[in-house]
Amino acid sequence: MARVAGFTVERTSKGKPTFARIDLRKYPFFIPILEEKGFEVEQPIKWTAKMKRAMAETEFTELDVNNFWD
After folding, report:
1. Residue 30: partners with Cβ closer than 8 Å, 6 or more residues away
2. Per-residue three-class SS string for 19-63
């Protein structure tokens, strides 16, 4: 069987294929297909309690461009 760069097939001790690995850097066109099937390719941000508290304490204000230097 011919080898294809970027694909790896892992087999059991009896020789049955169990896993297929795809190098997504080499084949990025698979990413939208995986996302359509429900895979999360991007890692979600892990919010810690300290980060949540910092966001809650932060005050956001609008700035007026005309009076920026005042």
Report:
1. 22, 24
2. EEEECCCCCCCHHHHHHHCCCCCCCCCCCCHHHHHHHHHCCCCCC
pTM: 0.48
Measure the CA–CA gap between 35 and 48, rounded to whole angstroms. Answer: 26
Does residue 29 sit within a domain?
yes
If pLDDT is split at 50, 70 and 90, which confidence band does 14 have?
A: very high
Residue 2 located in a structural domain: no
DSSP code, position 65? G
